Structure formats: structure tokens, C-alpha cells
Amino acid sequence: MRLLLISLVSWLALGPAGAEWRAETVPTPGPVTSLEVRGADTRIGIGSNWYRIAPATGSLIAAQAPDFSAVPAGGLSDGRVASSDGAIARAWLAHPTDRYRHGVLGDAIEAGSLVIQRRDGSIGTVTSGANAVFEDLEPRIATLDGVDRIVVVKSYLRRGSALAIIDAEAMKIIAETPPIGHAHAWLNPAGIADFDGNGSTDIALVRQPHVVGLLQLWSWQDRQLKKVAEVPDTSNHFIGSKALGMSWTADFDADGHPDLAVPSLDRRSLRLIAFVPKVRDIARIALPARVATNIGSTGVAGRPALVAGLEDGRLVIIRE
């Protein structure tokens, strides 16, 4: 998953409204197995080797393996450490537990707590409570109302998932969306930005991306999460995958407002969705196979583009 908000909200002016978009297959030396993003840097895993896209030609060139911080003792073995230059230096999920046993992220182990290290070096822990877990792999550090906070998925044992906002000073959950309503019903965040242009930060999530695929936009207003939009036919995950970054935020129609790239429910097309002046598809790009990796950004011949791996091992660049 992307390490922090910077990569979830990468601002790219990709082109004018009405531009034609297409997906192009990139030749690779083998099947794409993973795609990792840190900020604007996208690395493509093929077997044990790593590559990136050459800006001039759009072809693959060798690259170093992504450098991930080691998860501290007591953290989730498959979790990632989030970091930022702000008030929250680092954050990670910890205290593994099998009390939920959903397994949507590849195993039945989830987190019972979240550890936050502040810039001054102090460390605190927020627990999920005995009736819930943090069903996530990497916390998201986001600036809401000028304050750095944590965005994470909290799943109740009997009521399913909710989106939780954690205050790093008070070391507690200060807001949640209503849980979905029944056990083993999960959601996955998709982007954090002022999508609807009202001056408040919004958090996009996909509710039940495997069976329902309902994109919801939750606005952070007056220290509360308020639902402001819903879009059907979306997905940003498949069961068992640890790739939680199957979306991208950018200004795809060059109107000055961030938009969201997210696959359709069947993951066979990529939707570029705008929320200003109303919810609409900027484009819907057919793909030669289902998206199976995180989505990243790249540049080709001076133009920004998106890149993703498909379930049949192919790599595609999506651009105008």
C-alpha cells in the first residue's frame, strides 16, 4: 500500500476534458507480480527483479528494489510502516490477533492496536477494543483541518468495517463511519483530497469491493465524517490480495480539482471519476484483463500516465 497521503494525492494535470484515453501493453521479461508506489516513484516487480518506466520511451528499465522500513517488534508481519515529515513521524499496526478470522487480506491475522511515533519522539498506542480489529496493512497519515491524523480501517467482530480517524495527540479514535452492518463486510480507502471542491478534505472508500463495489465520498467537517456522494460499480481490491492501492488521485480533466481513478467492479476497466461540478465519468478505459496490482503514476514522452499490472501478468500504461 502507498506509504502516506502524498502518494494517495499526487497532483497530476493529465489533460483536457474529453481527451481520448487508452491502455497500452508494455513488453516485459515475465509476468508482473507486484507494483509498489512511494510518492511519485513507481517500481514494478517481475519475479525477483524490479523495474521502472523509462520516461522517454515508455519501456522498462532496471531499478532498485523498493526500500521499506522494517516493521518494529510486535507489529504485523505483513504490515507497512507509514512515515511523514509532519507531526506524525511514523505509524504502524501492531498486536497481531486472530479473533476476527476474516482473511480478506491473505491471512486470518489482523491488528489489535496502532502505534504512533510523534515528531518529538514520544510513542503512543491506540487499541481497537476487544470487539474489533484494525483490518488494514498500513495506516494513512493525512492532514485534516490542518492537523495530521491517522486514517485506518476498523472492523467490528459482528458489524463489519468502518473508516476510523485517529487523533495522534489524544491517542484515540475521534470519528468513524457507521460500520457496514454485519461481520466479514470490509471497505478499502481509495483516496484523500478535496474531491468536491468545497474546501473540506474528503476520504473516498469502496464499500465491499468484492461483491458490492460502492464508492463513497466522506467529507471531514466539524470533526465529523459526512457522506456526500456515492458511485456504484467500483472496486479497488480482490480477496486475498495485499495490494490496497488499486486507485489513484489526480486532476485528470485539468479543471483544478482532484479526480479519482478506480477500477470497475469487475476490474476490467479503469474509471476516471470527477466530482465537480457533479459526479461523472471523465473516461472509462477498457483493459485487456483485470487489474491485479496497485496503480501508480509514470511519465511517457513528457506526458503523465498511470501504470498497473493485470491478472494475466501483463503491464499496461494508461494515458491520453
Structure description:
There is one protein chain. Helices cover 1% and strands 48% of the residues. The protein contains one helix and 25 strands. The longest helix has 4 residues, at 5-8. It has one helix at residues 5-8, and strands at 22-26, 34-38, 41-46, 49-53, 60-62, 82-83, 88-97, 110-118, 123-127, 132-134, 140-144, 147-156, 160-167, 172-176, 187-193, 202-207, 214-221, 224-231, 248-250, 259-263, 269-274, 280-286, 291-300, 303-310, 315-319. It is globular and about 50 Å long. It is mainly beta and 320 residues long. Strands 10, 11, 12, 13 and 14 form a five-stranded antiparallel β-sheet that branches. A four-stranded antiparallel β-sheet has the order 1-25-24-23, with no helix packed on it. A four-stranded antiparallel β-sheet has the order 2-3-4-5, with no helix packed on it. Residues 1-18 have low confidence and may be disordered.
Detail the topology: elements first, then pairings.
Elements: H1 5-8, E1 22-26, E2 34-38, E3 41-46, E4 49-53, E5 60-62, E6 82-83, E7 88-97, E8 110-118, E9 123-127, E10 132-134, E11 140-144, E12 147-156, E13 160-167, E14 172-176, E15 187-193, E16 202-207, E17 214-221, E18 224-231, E19 248-250, E20 259-263, E21 269-274, E22 280-286, E23 291-300, E24 303-310, E25 315-319
Antiparallel strand pairs: 1-25, 2-3, 3-4, 4-5, 6-7, 7-8, 8-9, 10-12, 11-12, 12-13, 13-14, 15-16, 16-17, 17-18, 19-20, 20-21, 21-22, 23-24, 24-25
